[in-house]
Structures are given as C-alpha cells and as structure tokens.
Design a protein that fits this description.
The chain has a domain of 35 residues. 0% of the residues lie in helices and 43% in strands.
Length: 70
C-alpha cells in the first residue's frame, strides 16, 4: 500500500487577537494581530494574466452607462 503525501498546507497562528482581510486588484491581503502586538501579513496573489474580478460565473458589480448591475 502506498501513502500519498497531501498537497494541502495548514498555517496555525497561536495567540491571535483579530484578523483583517482586504480585497486588492490582484488578490487579497490578510493581516493577523497577535497578543504580543506583532502582526502577520499574508499577501495572496492570483496567477499572472488572470483577471479574477471579472471572471465569467463570478458575482461582481458592473457599471454600464451610470447604472449598476450585479
């Protein structure tokens, strides 16, 4: 029997107080505030050349001739 190694990665952050997430043009930024006052920043970026904000099938807001639609 062979055992496959998982491709999943887990990040464990102990002693965190709060986290903030922010959408940016090319991904997301996450900031984690810890009890000692330090901060962990994670910058997640989509693959180059992909416009995930306007990907077909994804809910997003479009402005056409001053009218908004979802």
């Amino acid at each position: 029997m062979t055992v496959k190694k998982s491709k999943d990665q887990n990040i464990v952050v102990n002693d965190y107080v709060r986290y903030y997430d922010n959408s940016v043009d090319n991904g997301h930024d996450i900031s984690i505030l810890k009890t000692d006052g330090s901060q962990i920043k994670i910058k997640m970026r989509w693959p180059k050349g992909e416009d995930r904000l306007n990907k077909p099938g994804r809910a997003h807001k479009t402005v056409i001739n001053n009218y908004e639609s979802d």
